[in-house]
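Q: My labmate handed me this sequence with no annotations at all. I'd like to see what the chain might look like in three dimensions before we decide whether it's worth expressing. Could you predict it?
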Amino acid sequence: MQRKHFLILLGLLILLPTMVHSQPIPPFDKIFDRWGPRIHPSDLRVLQLDMTPDPVRERERITFSATISNLSHYSTRLSLLVKDRDEVVTSVQDVLVKPGHNRIVFPHTGYRFSRHEHCFIVEVDIERTKRSIDVVKEFCARRTYAGWTLKEVRIGPLFVEDLDMFPDPVTPGQEIRFRVRLRNDGSPIRGNIRIQDRDQTIVSLNDTYLPYGHSEFHFPYARYAFQRFDHCFTVIVDVERTPYRTDAIREFCAKPLGWTLKP
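A: Here is what I predict for the chain of 263 residues:
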């Protein structure tokens, strides 16, 4: 009998480790394994950041939305913040981010634009640790005539369709006035328009609105000395301190036949 009990006890000792390891995972451990933080901020990328409306005017309420790429194979809940420098613009809490691309819509905000340029970042809060998410490009809002925009402002092409001078012909010592007919094939812009003879600025119009399509601009009178054999004029448009040279359908050169721009 003792020998039989000994054999049973020995068998239990051999089988017990196997039984322990084959036990099912407790429910609590399953939940933690599924929902516990498995991703790192480096797994995230900001692919796109948008504003609605865009462009936005002063004192309008806006909504930000972001396309976040999760490069890991896990889903997790986390908090996201849109910031301008150190200022929180808007935030969303406990949002589910799945593997792949996620579109996150943030709550409305009455954020006020006050500087020349506002560049936004998206920050993630994982386990109370905040860190900026890498972006594929800068997301900077610029001021345009229609309002602040995150969209890329396309300058031109700009074409000079006609350039006139009054009086024409002009005699030495007379004040002259220019009229320019411009065509803007790009976005509506606001900038400075100047007429140059080589590197010398003759006259300019500041803070001028250039809508899409055809526009005509009358410059103030200016006194300019005609001294060389010919004077060829170009039109330059400055937008946010960047000069853009315009194309012209022909050369506009004043020649010493009474100094005229007429063909």
